[in-house]
Amino acid sequence: MENYFINNPNNIICSNRTTDILKNSKAMEYHKSLSAYQSTPLVCLPHLAQKYNISNIFVKDESHRFGLNAFKGLGASYAIHKILEQNPAIDFFCTATDGNHGRAVAWASKIAQKKAIVFVPKDTTQSRINAIRNEGAKVVKIDGNYDETCIYAKEISKKNGWLLVQDTSWENYEEIPAQIMAGYLTLFQEIEDSLHCLPTPKIDVVFLQAGVGSWAGSAIWYYLNRYGNNRPKIVVVEPTEADGIFSSFVAGKRIIPDCSFNTIMAGLNCGIPSLNAWEIIKNGADAAIRVEDKFAEQAIRELYYSQGNDERIIAGESGAGGLAGFIALMTSGDLRVLKSELNINSTTKVLFYNTEGATDLDSFNKIID
Description:
- By secondary structure, the chain is an alpha/beta fold.
- The protein has helices at residues 17-23, 27-32, 46-51, 73-86, 100-111, 126-133, 146-160, 175-195, 214-227, 244-251, 275-284, 293-304, 321-331, 336-342, 361-368, and strands at 4-6, 42-44, 56-61, 92-96, 115-120, 138-141, 163-164, 205-209, 233-239, 287-291, 349-354.
- The strands form 2 sheets. The chain has a 7-stranded mixed sheet, with helices on both faces. A 4-stranded parallel sheet has the order 6-5-4-7, sandwiched between helices.
């Protein structure tokens, strides 16, 4: 099977509860009210662009967000804020995570003076567990993968009367994941402000890494809502061994992918796509790519060992996922058809998002060494 899927998006935003929540989001207003808020940097990497023979590369570096080393705090904090607006008596929040989302829920619960319990899959590293615990949450490891951990968290939350704050959605559980997606809109609004300050701001192609797809879906909604048919081309990137969106494109519907779920890109190591996100992604993504871990490792090194005057960026395995997809596209012969379809050439300007820093230091140090 090919490692890419060329989509023919209709660029339509369907009207439903999720898109209504996204449209009416006041996430940036809320985030600016937090003492820890500051806009994360947009970094220009002209030397890296020259290496790959394109015009320019921009990276939005979310490793600086709220001191959490990842973007997830935007979604969790806004969702918990909206939940408590409706029911301030809620005392206990629960979630399943493969790392960053759980830490974000723990942090957001702490600043709201609430309790949190976080369930993690069996392969979660101790450093990720410690990061969640350091935010004050109780962490429980489940003998299962990400999808199985989500099911467990859902069932035990119902049993114990906890409020589930999950960043993936399914039938009859859509509002809270939509509020999380709405929270992510802050970073896209920030980046537009940064781009408009540059002499050549137009971006041609955006690469979006995806796990369940909530963040990628939020991004695609943003670009469709703001630019319509004039939006940049959008490529969704996943690990080869956790390719739920790619497999769903191939199947023509949301499915659980038939793969090992064995990847260093822990934040992307998910199964079936989020229901909320899938509808947006299939209507607005131009392509999906699945990449081997070696490309994520190369992307981390490209950002760390910066050339010329390019700024060094510390990216984790999932944070470098978008760049990993780009490197695969530019260096793998089996992706040349997609490269041509996207019309990537010496005038192309590309945008990536570093969605996490070195959240697993042992793994990061092995890669850069």
